[in-house]
Design brief:
Helix content: 40-55%
Strand content: 5-15%
Number of domains: 2
Structural class: alpha/beta
Radius of gyration: 22 Å
Low-confidence stretches: 1-21
CATH class of the largest domain: Alpha Beta
Shape: globular
Distance between the termini: 38 Å
CATH topology of the largest domain: D-Maltodextrin-Binding Protein, domain 2
Number of strands: 12
CATH superfamily of the largest domain: Periplasmic binding protein-like II
Largest sheet: 6 strands, mixed
CATH architecture of the largest domain: 3-Layer(aba) Sandwich
């Protein structure tokens, strides 16, 4: 770090400490981390903020991000902002930034040398608008994982599958024993499943060309036709009446041995940890569905709505700096199942899944943007609705679903 950055860091730290030492500031923090593994992870953030001299006031919103995001954005637009809020990196906060409702934390990012210590660069880039930083990336999440319970397959006399194709091939044998081959929850997890199958069967390049470049020829071509044909096969052993409401319930079926596999992001790892199951022994975590080891660059970030109280503003900036310190990054991410934003931390306690993710992260060609970094939220919601309808309605053909998908991509704003 250069002398100017070092000096700026000392000055900022001193000013924040002075405010914090004078009086603890309550910071209401909204987020949607409410499952067992998520609650254990967010407790580490709360502990760190409280130790810094301020008070984390938990504002958890039950349900998924699709439930929480409109509430969060509505509060900020309505003049009732929280002190800090979780969102995903991407386009969700663009309008709030344009309206001048979010705090510029460029000074914190500069003092902490985030441009050099945080990885991959796309995460901080998603927080940066016109050269100014508006959020702090706290982890790297990827949705590109398949989770399997080894005992379920072994008890059925089967070898635990190591990829998507082996899971599909083993499905009839599990069904014959009354075991659900693949658990699935309603809403966005269906979209995640579809995206994972796209990447596994059509490839990363085609996935990005469709979502980022709006390549209609590929979206309507044979590569995506393979995806919808594969999903047509899958929905035969995941009927609509077997779908559960929440993603963690679907993972719970795998943990309990009632289902063989689930497609879910690496945050599912936190649920297995809470259940005291060991990766590579009790369960397998297969990046890229075991077909192609890749990661998409999803994750979580925190924004800080503007506040008229200087003490709150100072506490917000102190919190931003705290969340990316080495100790906090390790404590949070080990429990969350996600990857830390910085490479210079001690991950000797990392489990098999995190080690797999870190190995992929070290090869940038295997890392690609998350969907919200490439296309708007409204279009994503339409795609999720389409895929949910397709998985639940056996009368909708694969060709019809693909045609509807192409139409959504065609109309998505660039």
């Amino acid at each position: 770090m250069g002398i100017k950055k070092f000096a700026l860091g000392l000055a900022l730290s001193a000013s924040l400490f002075a405010v914090g030492a004078a009086k603890a500031t309550d910071l209401e923090v909204t987020h949607w981390w409410t499952s067992g593994g998520e609650a254990a992870a967010v407790a580490e953030f709360a502990k760190a903020v409280n130790a810094s001299g301020d008070k984390w006031v938990d504002g958890a919103i039950a349900g998924s991000g699709s439930v929480a995001r409109p509430i969060i954005i509505s509060r900020i637009l309505g003049g009732n902002p929280m002190a800090a809020t979780q969102l995903n990196p991407g386009k969700d906060a663009d309008d709030l930034i344009k309206a001048g409702l979010l705090e510029d934390i460029t000074d914190v990012a500069t003092a902490g040398d985030w441009a050099h210590i945080l990885r991959p660069a796309s995460q901080l880039a998603s927080c940066t608008v016109d050269g100014k930083v508006y959020c702090v990336p706290v982890n790297l999440h990827s949705g590109q994982w398949m989770w399997t319970n080894r005992k379920v397959y072994e008890d059925a006399g089967l070898k635990p599958p190591q990829n998507w194709n082996e899971m599909v091939a083993a499905a009839p044998a599990l069904q014959a024993k009354g075991i659900q081959p693949l658990s699935l929850s309603q809403g966005w997890p269906v979209g995640l499943l579809v995206n994972d199958v796209v990447v596994a069967l059509a490839g990363v390049d085609n996935f990005v060309k469709v979502y980022k470049d709006r390549d209609l020829a590929i979206a309507g071509g044979p590569e995506f036709a393979k995806v919808y044909q594969a999903l047509d096969t899958v929905r035969k052993f995941v009927p609509a009446d077997k779908m559960v409401p929440q993603w963690n319930e679907a993972i719970g079926l795998v943990i309990q041995g009632k289902a063989g596999a689930n497609i879910m992001g690496d945050w599912a790892g936190g649920e297995f940890q809470v259940a005291k199951m060991v990766a590579g022994k009790d369960y397998d975590c297969l990046p890229g569905l075991g077909v192609t080891p890749v990661l998409d660059t999803g994750g979580d970030v925190f924004y800080f709505p503007k506040n008229k109280d200087p003490a709150v503003t100072a506490a917000q900036k102190k919190m931003a700096a705290t969340l990316v310190t080495k100790e906090v990054q390790v404590a949070f991410n080990l429990k969350k199942g996600s990857l830390p934003m910085r490479a210079d931390v001690d991950l000797s306690a990392a489990n098999d899944c995190m080690k797999k993710g870190l190995a992929i992260l070290d090869h940038s060609k295997a890392v690609f943007p998350g969907t919200i970094q490439m296309i708007d939220r409204d279009s994503l919601n339409q795609i999720d609705d389409l895929n949910t309808a397709f998985m639940a309605d056996p009368t909708m053909t694969a060709a019809a679903a693909q045609a509807k998908f192409v139409d959504i991509i065609k109309k998505a704003p660039k």
